[in-house]
Amino acid sequence: MNPPSELRSSNAASQARLRRIEGRHNALVKEIRRAFSRGELTEAGDCAVEGLRVIEEAVRSGVRFKAVLFSESGEKLAGRLLPQIGSHVETLVLPDKLFAGMVDSETPQGVAALVHYKQTSVVDVLERAASGPVVVLAGLQDPGNLGTIVRSAEAFGAGGILLGEGTVSPFNPKVVRGTAGSIFRLPIARGKTVEILSELGSRGVRVVATSSHKGVLLPEANLALPMAVLVGGEGTGVSKDLLGKADEVIAIPHNPQVESLNAGVAASIVLYEIARKQSALSAPHSGGST
User: Fold this and answer.
1) What angle separates helix 78-85 from helix 52-60, to the nearest 10 degrees?
2) Rounded distance, CA 7 to CA 71, Å?
3) Do 10-116 and 122-282 share a fold?
4) Do 114 and 48 touch, CB atoms closer than 8 A?
5) Backbone phi, then psi, for 37, in 5-degree steps?
6) What was the pLDDT predicted at 103?
7) Is-above-0.70 flag for pTM?
8) Closest CA to 124 of 110, 134, 115
9) Where are the domains of the chain?
């Protein structure tokens, strides 16, 4: 069965927009390869993304695209993506080998893009602490953990995320994929951890630090807003110096045979518990005679 005429015309229009590139020295190819390898924004403030799902999430989030690049084997995705992205975006097709050498993943999905990232400041994130918890990450280095935390933070209504020194870049390709699009919608900023904690204190925002060994058990902790959740790095957790600056230290009850929880899992559990308690507080109380 042939596809509907409107689908055929859409695919044809998409194919017509594609420009074929054979050489690795193309300026755009070099720019996106550098962004992937460094795990940082380009000088123009663009973020390199790869994979069908993340790119469709960028579209859904209203992100502005600079360029979309397909591998020859992934060219079939153009008919699906380009009508969503719109016109006036540079679109290229690369040989599979050239594309694979440009992106970060071991099994490329055949499409990558440069999208403009709307940057925010530490102050902007701090000002959102009253509407949802702010997550402060100190020395978190695993991209998978950061991706999980960003995704959970959006899911459970966090105000934003602040990254202290020693924390992996939010623009690391593995982080971007792990957020499943949340990176485009949740405010994220970087700063110095001690300065962030000091500013939180001056604004009257309580800081609750996570610990795997000691502290108030999570169900009994004071999780009232405004508050910030301080999460440390893998293995070492929150340092003693930073623990001393927290208003409260909390621990998630778990089987003592397990030494500690994964940082991404632990942060997600805390964020869920905060959301659950806030929902219970805001729910209307039913009344009536008995």
Assistant:
1) 20
2) 21
3) no
4) yes
5) -70, -35
6) 94
7) yes
8) 134
9) 10-116, 122-282
- For the CA atoms of 21, 27, 29, 35, the dihedral, rounded to the nearest 10 degrees, stands at -170
Cis peptide upstream of residue 226 (ω within 30 degrees of 0): yes
CATH number of 10-116: 3.30.1330.30
pLDDT tens track for 206-228:
999 998 778 999 999 999 999 99
Q: Which CATH code for domain 122-282? A: 3.40.1280.10
**For the residues 29-40, what does the mean pLDDT come to?**
95
| Neighbouring-strand partners of residue 94 | 71
Q: What is the largest CA-CA distance in the chain?
A: 79
**CA distance from start to end of the chain:** 66
Tokens describing residue 225: 């807003």
Q: Which long-range contacts (CB under 8 A, 24 or more apart) does 275-280 make?
A: 275/156, 275/157, 277/223, 278/157, 278/223, 278/225
* % of the chain surpassing 70 pLDDT: 92
* CB atoms closer than 10 angstroms to residue 144: 16
Torsion of CA 150, 140, 209, 156, to 10 degrees: 10
